[in-house]
What we know:
Elements: E1 2-9, E2 11-13, E3 17-24, E4 27-29, E5 31-32, E6 35-36, E7 38-51, E8 59-74, E9 77-79, E10 83-96, E11 105-120, E12 126-136, E13 140-157, E14 162-173, E15 177-180, E16 184-194, E17 201-210, E18 213-216, E19 229-232, E20 234-238, E21 242-245, E22 253-255, E23 258-261
Parallel strand pairs: 1-7, 2-8, 3-8, 4-9, 7-10, 8-11, 10-12, 11-13, 12-14, 13-15, 13-16, 14-17, 15-18, 16-19, 17-20, 18-21, 19-22, 20-23
Antiparallel strand pairs: 5-6
Amino acid sequence: xxxIGLYMVNKVAAKSLDLTVTAxxxxxxxxxxxxxxxGTFETLAYGIQAEPTNAGLPxxxxxxxxxxxxxxxxxxxxxxxxxxxxxxxxxxxxxxxxEKATGTTTATLGSVTGTVAVNGVAASGEGSYxxxxxxxxxDAHLTTGDVDLTVTGTxxxxxxxxxxxxxxxxxxxxxxxxxxxxxxxxKTAVNPVAGTEGYGNFEAVALDAFMATINVGTDGEGNxxxxxxxxxxxVAAVADGTVNLTxxxxxxxxxxxxxxxx
Length: 262
């Protein structure tokens, strides 16, 4: 199951965007010859998905006004004696350059607000559930004013052999960058609910740079922007990634760990 509010290649310009996107996985039911029918599900929900072209042409998204996102992905379920074998669900607010190509992807936005949520369901095999506010991959570049995003992951984990639950705020990978010029409120949380055996792993990372750069509260050159920045979730800069985060007024805070690894 897949739902996308705006899928784009090449150029899109709009005064503002208000997108509500919901994707819900299917349901497997019943049993055959006394054995539970088993289902495998993949559920994807994107607010905005922008991809470069293999022709080397740039993809650009320009929205001088507000971008408001309400994105939810809910994993598949079982009923009437059936069972879920493998289950995955992914929710993305804004995804830039997810597919590797020769072109670049650039977004210039007035502001970004909203919620991104994933709801998982226990599986007997592999369960993988993730929610991300903004992600930039493969030479993608995003600049915005104010950001106010809440990203959550919720899942009931039963006897999963391999379970993963994550919530990410701003993620930049592989020569990409995210610049926040306005006030920033970025809240991430995961809410695993115990099933029969517990969990594989779960994480909430508000800012994550991998071979890339994220600037929040600063221009990245050592200059404060004088903004209020409130971050809930870990901050990670790995594999030569850089997170420049400035918290220099009484209303600003970081509630989370700082993770670095070369």
